[in-house]
Structure formats: C-alpha cells, structure tokens
Design a protein that fits this description.
single chain; 248 residues; alpha/beta; Rossmann fold; ten-stranded mixed sheet; 9 helices; 31% helix
Length: 248
C-alpha cells in the first residue's frame, strides 16, 4: 500500500477532515465570498509551515506587500524574519513596481496582464527559498484580466507548481450568490476544492467550510462551522452545520 505524504494545514480541526492533511503536491482551490476568511486561511497555512521549517511563497495580486505583512502581524505572524532568513518570499503582483515601497520588494511582476512573467517570477522565488508551500491570493484577478485563457493559465501554473514540488493554495473570490467556485472550468484544473461560506443562520452570520474534493485522500463530506480568532481560523470537526435548502 502506497503511503500518502501529507502536508499539515495549520488550521486546527481541518486535518481531521482531510484524513491527516493535504496530499503533498496537490493544488487546492480555496473558494468563497467576501468576508469568509480565505486570505487569513492561506496566510495561516504558510506561517504554520515556516514555524516548522517548511519554506513558503505568497503571491499577492490584490494587496500591497506592505499591507500583507502588517495584516499578518495582527495574528502574531511576523514574516519579516523569515524573509531575512531567505525561507519566505512575497511575490508582488499588485503594484507593478510603482511606488517607493514597491521598489524595495525583491520579487515584482511588472505586468500582471502577462501570465508568463508571473510564472517566471514565481518560479524564481520558489527556487530561491526552496519553497514547499505556496499561496496565490487571488487567482480571480487572472480570470478578470484574461477570462478566455484563465483555465490555460491555471493549468500552466499547476504544472510549474507540481513540477517544483510545492503544495499550493489558490484563493478564489466568488460573489455572495454565485454557484460554483469562481472562474471558467477552474474546478477541473485543481486537485482539491475547499469552499468557505458565510450564511445567515437564525438571525446571525455563521462561517462554515466544506471540502468539495481532494484528490489522493478520503475526506469528510459534511459542512462544518469555523471561527476566526486572534490566532487565525479554527474549524469544529465535531459540529455539522445545516443551512436550509441552500445549494452552491
């Protein structure tokens, strides 16, 4: 029997639902609407790895790297020291290199509309830090700029990431009412899908998570509530959330 190598997510309660963790080298789509905690999830995943000697790369397409570092520090995730040690890198695919702070960034994608440049800079960062974990926040930006070739870009990204041996989270933004996972045919291009939701239940908003698919492992098929605490996400595997007749 082949033993599956797994990567611990760093999200308390989640690995129990994944039979021990995410299968190594999987590319996982982390999909959800605004306010569901996707960005925090992806950063928590990376920081957990850094604390355990697993280098990482974060690609930011929707936020200034300076803001990313500041937001992470709110949870006690100080990535600057790991950057100085050469085991963590932020790829700036947001500023286009414009502005004084952006000029101090080491890995900059000058043209976000150019997927080839994005992949080249990402590859360089992964090799430099010997990354084992990658998060791209968010791939939705790629669909918006190049919807007709979004699936092709994703397949290209997946080949590069799998070839370099990383286990990757692709953050995907969907609207509150949207069915599916964001982007044309994206769900077929990835190895796993974790969907985060925010729903009104009994007059209050409740966050929940469901693992839609995960290649290479058995996984839980139920919807579980989670909270965002001052230390990040916590999933409750012993609780199941039922939301009326809601479908996604």
């Amino acid at each position: 029997m082949v033993r599956i190598e797994r990567v611990k997510s760093g999200i308390p309660g989640l690995d129990e639902l994944l039979n021990g963790g995410i299968p190594r080298r999987n590319v996982v789509l982390l999909s959800g609407g605004p306010g569901t905690g996707k960005t925090i999830f992806s950063q928590q995943y990376l920081y957990y790895g850094l604390e355990r000697g697993e280098p990482g790369v974060l690609v930011t397409l929707e936020e200034h790297p300076v803001q990313v570092r500041r937001n992470m520090s709110v949870f006690g995730w100080d990535v600057r020291r790991y950057e100085e040690q050469g085991v963590f890198a932020i790829v700036d695919a947001f500023t286009g290199g414009i502005g004084e702070a952006a000029k101090r960034e080491r890995y900059v994608v000058t043209s976000v509309d150019d997927p080839t440049e994005l992949i080249d800079v990402l590859r360089e960062a992964i090799r430099d830090v010997k990354a084992e974990r990658v998060a791209i926040d968010s791939v939705s930006t790629l669909y918006l700029t190049k919807p007709s070739i979004a699936r092709g870009i994703l397949m290209q990204l997946k080949r590069v990431l799998a070839g370099l041996g990383t286990t990757t989270l692709l953050v995907s933004q969907v609207s509150v009412t949207e069915r599916g996972f964001g982007g044309p045919g994206v769900e077929h291009a990835v190895d796993g899908i974790i969907r985060l939701d925010l729903d009104e239940v009994g007059g209050e908003l409740v966050r929940s998570l469901i693992i839609w698919k995960m290649r290479g492992t058995k996984h839980d098929m139920k919807r579980h509530p989670f909270d965002i605490t001052d230390k990040g996400l916590v999933v409750y595997p012993d609780k199941v959330l039922k939301i009326g007749q809601r479908t996604i």
